[in-house]
Design goal:
alpha+beta, five-stranded antiparallel sheet, four-stranded antiparallel sheet, 8 helices, 13 strands, about 35% helix, elongated
Length: about 350
């Protein structure tokens, strides 16, 4: 296409007499300026401003009430209570109430802050020229003056109802996080210090569910046992077996190195807790030649011929031993409970 065919408005303007020179506008990106400010109804009508103030205060107050409801839910609803709520169906009453109240508490704080900014705080757009990173004293003074003006225009000092309810909402919401610490679990009290084992309770084979007799335990074998009277149908079976599970091993008496272990055994039959002292995993791997047991979770290894002391891995202490004997019927029985808590250490163990 020749230059004659190009419309005149698309051709560059000539500048002077220099060949190929182009006339360039002085400012190709002219500042379009700002549109005229349109006042809001709250800016010209104090009654509308009061309505907005009350609406914001209502949202902050609702946040406070929701936070109180969040805390109260922990007290009112048991963990296992299930209720039907349409359209969610059957849900946990505690989880639903916690989610609902915490959601309302956080949402109303945010909604109140947004409504405050959009209706009562100044909405005048201000354009400012860029300046050097290091501000001059005059600029610093201007920033502080602008901040003071913004604080004054926000009505933070004058509108005490908004200010006080906002402080109340912000002060109460963190309490939700404090209450959530309860989900770390119930206080152990004395539950971790004792098990179902007691003097006279027979050792029940967990495979046959029959009382164990000395002749049932062969040298080098590993048998698992639980206390007499505990069954899988028991309501708290999992909690109790997690503390009372036993490993029964028969070792030649001459191969038992620890004196107390030999005294607490019966004809070389020793009973140790099955619960690893690292994080509470069940121990199930036994090596006959060395009399070592290995926890499959983190490879803690215990020597059952030497008081079940730790010989490898992260476990902090030996497995507790249960003192056993034989009753009048010829069955193995416990002669008491463990002398120390089973499983991992805990903060109040001492």
């Amino acid at each position: 296409m020749s230059s004659q065919e190009i419309p005149d408005e698309n051709l560059p303007a000539e500048q002077g007499t220099a060949h190929g020179a182009v006339e360039v506008a002085e400012d190709p990106f002219a500042d379009p300026g700002l549109p005229a400010h349109q006042p809001r109804i709250q800016d010209i009508d104090e009654r509308a401003a009061k309505r907005s103030e009350r609406a914001i205060a209502f949202m902050f107050t609702l946040s406070m009430l929701a936070t109180v409801g969040f805390i109260a839910s922990y007290v009112i609803f048991p963990v296992d209570k299930i209720v039907y709520i349409w359209p969610f169906g059957h849900v946990s009453a505690l989880n639903f109430s916690l989610g609902l109240t915490l959601g309302v508490a956080l949402f109303t704080i945010g909604a109140g802050a947004v409504h405050w900014a959009r209706t009562l705080m100044s909405d005048v757009e201000v354009a400012d020229d860029r300046h050097a990173i290091e501000a001059e004293p005059e600029v610093k003074a201007k920033v502080m003056a602008d901040f003071a003006a913004g604080a004054e225009e926000s009505g933070f000092g004058r509108r005490k109802l908004i200010r006080n309810t906002m402080f109340g909402a912000l002060a109460l919401v963190p309490l939700s996080g404090v209450v959530l610490l309860r989900d770390l679990g119930p206080l152990p009290e004395k539950k971790l210090r004792s098990t179902l084992w007691a003097k006279g309770k027979q050792l029940i084979n967990m495979n046959t569910m029959e009382p164990l007799r000395p002749e049932d335990v062969a040298v080098g074998s590993l048998t698992f046992a639980m206390p007499e009277g505990l069954t899988e149908e028991s309501e708290d079976f999992q909690n109790q077996i997690a503390k009372a599970a036993l490993m029964i091993i028969r070792i030649e008496p001459d191969n038992i190195k620890d004196k107390r272990e030999r005294e607490w055994a019966h004809e070389g039959i020793v009973a140790f807790s099955k619960i690893c002292t690292h994080v509470g995993c069940p121990i199930s791997l036994y090596e006959q030649q060395t009399h070592h047991v290995l926890c499959p979770c983190h490879q803690s290894t215990f020597d059952l011929s030497d008081g079940a002391r730790v010989i490898f891995g992260p476990a902090g202490h030996a497995l507790p031993q249960l003192r056993i004997g034989v009753n009048s019927e010829g069955n193995l029985e416990a002669l008491g409970d463990f002398e120390e808590p089973v499983g991992p250490a805990f903060w109040e163990r001492g």
